[in-house]
Write a structure and sequence with these properties.
globular, nine-stranded mixed beta sheet, electron transfer activity, two-stranded antiparallel sheet
Length: 248
């Protein structure tokens, strides 16, 4: 079985985003970028499935600028076998991403597509569900546990108030949640080996997908500064204060 793992290049989660002076978007100049954390979990899970002998190949794919090669090389260093970069400088929206992934999946014919439940830059949480719909495949979202058994995969999902277990017939789509696993660090020898692993470059036009945005961002701004709190001496003072503010 082959596993396809989409990964996205995003601002590193330790970096505080800065808004451009003209309010047109987030400033990416001289900012550390890395693999989306949820996608990193997806890569780890795919590699673990391969290591268990239930998959033969892990293919990483990314849609983004040329610098996304660095993200793919990270996936290769973790243990992916080869990578595909669909190069574009457009800000590709989830539907276009899903259409490109559908075209790649039809060429690669993976038994399983594992991707992060969302990207930390836009928090859309749409691509996995859209891909499953476009391909007519069963889906297991917000995966807490993934178990491949023959021609099926059992996914324990994190839902409001508990866990739900679903059994999907392969081929299927799975999106990962935070508690699925702890991604491994890429060792220096594996980083060096990753430079020699195959990485193909394509474009959205190769798959007949229009990446023109359907949404228009009118303005991006920093959240309002939180006002300082006020200490009170006792409960009576708290009640008096709340009444003065009109909330009690």
């Amino acid at each position: 079985m082959k596993i396809l793992v989409p990964v996205k290049r995003v601002i590193d989660y330790n970096v505080k985003p800065r808004v451009k002076a003209d309010g047109s978007g987030v400033d990416l100049a001289n900012v550390k970028m890395s693999m989306n954390p949820f996608d990193e979990i997806a890569v780890e899970e795919a590699i673990k499935i391969k290591e268990s002998g239930k998959a033969d190949e892990v293919v990483a794919v990314s849609i983004g600028p040329a610098k996304a090669q660095e993200t793919l090389r990270t996936a290769l260093a973790m243990g992916a076998d080869r990578a595909i970069l669909v190069e574009t400088d457009d800000a590709v929206e989830p539907l276009a991403v899903a259409k490109i992934l559908k075209a790649i999946a039809e060429e690669e014919e993976p038994g399983l597509v594992i991707l992060g439940k969302q990207a930390i830059d836009d928090d859309s949480n749409q691509t996995g569900q859209m891909l499953a719909t476009l391909m007519g495949r069963p889906q297991g979202t917000f995966a807490n546990t993934v178990e491949v058994d023959g021609d099926s995969v059992t996914v324990k999902r994190e839902i409001d108030g508990g866990l739900e277990t679903v059994k999907l017939t392969l081929p299927a789509i799975v999106t990962t949640d935070l508690r699925l696993n702890e991604p491994r660090y890429a060792s220096l020898p594996n980083i060096m080996k990753a430079k020699k692993k195959p990485l193909d470059t394509k474009s959205p036009a190769d798959f007949g997908v229009d990446t023109a945005p359907r949404l228009k961002t009118t303005n991006v701004s920093e959240p309002p500064v939180r006002q300082a709190g006020e200490k009170v001496e006792d409960v009576d003072a708290l009640v008096t204060k709340l009444k003065a503010l009109g909330v009690a």
